[in-house]
Amino acid sequence: MRKSLIIATLVLATVAGAGAVGLTSGATSIPNRAHGDVTAASRTTAFDHLSSGEHWIYLMVDGLQRLFIVEVPTGNPVVDRALVLVYHGALDTASNTITETNLLPEVTAKHDVIAFLQGYEDTWNEGSGSTAARLAHVNDVAFTAAVIARLRTLVSFDPRRVAAVGFSNGAIMVEDLGCHQAASIDLIVPVEGQLSTAQSSSCSPARPISVYEIHQTADPLIPYDGGYFQTSVGYDTMLSAPDSVARWAHLDGCTKGPVTAKPSSTISLSEYSKCRGGAFVTLRTIDGDQHEWAPDIGQLVVQALAKLPA
């Protein structure tokens, strides 16, 4: 697999929300385009300024050098392909997550683009709790905005099909992105990490956002039933997993649900529908006592992307 390295410098014009991002880079002179300026015509133009394969890209965001690893699928780009952003768990890394999950092969098999983001000291500032990134006041919402802006200059993807997927501390991070980055993210997939009470009280997404939340019933680190928890990397207070998706359903204006289904003896689904903007909200509950990525996370993300409105 071919690997390349690109170094860019980013100057953030705003820190909150999606953020206006100015870009200078020796790698390319293609102009940046803000999310709100993406027209219907631009969505039909497929291009790749990155070759297929793995690319390590460094950005300067708020004075910090940040890294993400992007995989461009082989073959000609398709006009409606998705962008999947992946957030590792605390004390893990972007590169480890590539091999720990089946996200990369499943997502690229659909000709979609996938990027694995690297946290500050292997943690994320998800807007609550006490991780190293939180204590250092690192702005990971701005980092996400910068990654999306950078990728718009390098590969084509459908701005209506952007997903953020995270595990544990990364799951709580994508919950925060749902609250603060909904203008440019369409789907969040938190695994073993629900909304914190602090996030829930202040969450005000710019538009409806689809949610596919995954949690084991006896998770030993972040409790399914919510409440206070503490680990070696920090502490926080959470909603229960059912209350977390109910909060999202309320924010999305869903008028039907939850409707429950049991696709297997160890898995149950609680689904909200008839939400504003065609969004959907689902809780996948797994009978289990592990704190881990779902082994079929790649397939679940692909299936969730397929449910997004055209």
Outline the fold blueprint.
Elements: E1 3-12, E2 21-25, H1 40-43, E3 53-61, E4 64-72, E5 83-87, H2 94-100, H3 103-109, E6 113-117, H4 132-135, H5 140-154, E7 162-167, H6 169-180, E8 187-191, H7 197-202, E9 210-216, E10 227-231, E11 234-238, H8 241-251, E12 256-264, E13 267-273, E14 281-286, H9 297-306
Parallel strand pairs: 1-3, 5-6, 5-7, 7-8, 8-9, 9-14
Antiparallel strand pairs: 1-2, 3-4, 4-6, 10-11, 12-13, 13-14
Helix pairs in contact: 3-9
**CATH class, anyone?**
Alpha Beta
Instruction: Enter the CATH topology name.
Output: Rossmann fold
Q: How do the strands of the widest beta sheet line up side by side?
A: 2-1-3-4-6-5-7-8-9-14-13-12
Counting DSSP E segments of at least 2 residues, the number of strands comes to 14
**Coarse morphology:** globular
Relative strand content: 25-35%
Q: How many whole angstroms does the radius of gyration measure?
A: 18 Å
Separation of termini? 32 Å
- What does the largest sheet look like? 12 strands, mixed
Q: Write the CATH homologous superfamily.
A: Alpha/Beta hydrolase fold, catalytic domain
By helix and strand content, what is the structural category? alpha/beta
pLDDT < 50 stretches: 9-44
**Helicity range:** 10-25%
Query: How many helical stretches?
Result: 9
Order of helices and strands: EEHEEEHHEHHEHEHEEEHEEEH
**Number of spatially distinct domains:** 1
CATH architecture: 3-Layer(aba) Sandwich
Q: Averaged pLDDT, please?
A: 88
